Amino acid sequence: GRAVSRKDEL
Amino acid sequence: MNAFRLAGDMTHLLSIILLLHKIRAMKSCAGISLRTQELYVIVFVTRYVDLSMKYYSFYNSIMKIVFLGTSISIVWYMRYHKVVKQTYNKDVDTFRHIFLILPCFVLALLINRAFTVIEVLWTFSLYLEAVAILPQLVLLQRSRNIDNLTGNYVFLLGAYRAFYLLNWIYRFFIENHQVRWIPWLSGLLQTAIYADFFYYYIKSWKNREKLKLPA
Fold it and tell me: The complex's ipTM?
């Protein structure tokens, strides 16, 4: 499955 | 972190350094929209409310603090510094914040991934960031003389989101990340808004002419 997108961007 | 993401963050950081240099060394904010700068403060405050709650990395936390601190200090200089504030083009910087803030907030209430305070504020910050440059672009269009620093500042600010688009494509295909429509589409809009500016910026650079936007 695809990686869960975390809000690790700015 | 991939190279596109890093390039995006660095151009963003560089744009802020350039603007702070203009303000602190040249003691001037001519050609800079206070409206846009105030919108960025709102963008960062609403996006980084999770700063105290969620830890991703040292890099992330530092960058968030830098973006918050610098955006607030830029607004402070433009409003209160006794020399800088006199260079502010108040009469041409007339775009109303509320016309951007209100629709973005309503949209964030309607279209979000989860109806929670943090999530709605985060979504609102993305929508608002996408359009926050508009008062600045209007001001540039009304300016007869755009100095190099201001032109480069806006160019770097546009390049930042363009690199993020590449970063999202990379993350989706190479790092196998999930689809994220809200940041992707608002980021795409944000970059598209710069298209016209990019065109004239590159043209003036190629012809070694002074940057001027058609009214």
Answer: 0.92
